[in-house]
Write a structure and sequence with these properties.
The longest helix has 19 residues. This protein is of the alpha/beta class. Helix content is 41%, strand content 22%. It starts with a helix and ends in a 7-residue tail after the last helix. It is globular and about 50 Å long. Catalyzes the transfer of a ribosyl phosphate group from 5-phosphoribose 1-diphosphate to orotate, leading to the formation of orotidine monophosphate (OMP).
Length: 213
Amino acid sequence: MIFNKDTAEKTAELLLQINAIKLNSKNPFTWASGWQSPIYCDNRLILSFPAIRNYVREEFSKLIEKEFGKPDVIAGVATGAIGIGILVAEYMGLPFVYVRPEPKKHGRQNQVEGFLQKGQNVVVVEDLISTGNSSLVAVEALKEAGANVKGMVAIFSYGFDVAIENFKKANVDLHTLADYEHLLLLAVAKNYITEKELSTLQEWRKNPSTWNV
């Protein structure tokens, strides 16, 4: 669920402006999963643009307080959401921890890095939601560490059915600043893509794992 329509449209436009989101239906990208895709999203670019990263941290802060109240701790999912998570925690005056994909193989073998007490209310910050699997691994690690996970916020979601189902099964409340639907509407309106390219992008999301195979 998006925060609101205006934020979704503005966030999408900012991501397009800095090429954090690239759309190319003629020369598709290959994801790490092997999927062929007409879209590629790298929200880490936000950190290189002070005005945009400040906008994102402030919208995240408003979203978090509106949906979850003020938590005890902000958690970022490694590695993409560590930077923006720290900015949000700093802006809200809250402690910050981050969650590794798996426990370290040495030292204290932590998966959750930072000071976290059992029973603390935590909101998880993520940069991008595709299937949701890695994000939900982070949620589970926090729960195992004794956190009360209130929910998750993300910059952008593709809105895949599998992600919606995964978050529903895990009973995790997800809210995003922008999503695929509002991105496409904005991209057409601002002439980033043609109506024909829009059709291709809409078809891709219906079955991304087999598109263009």
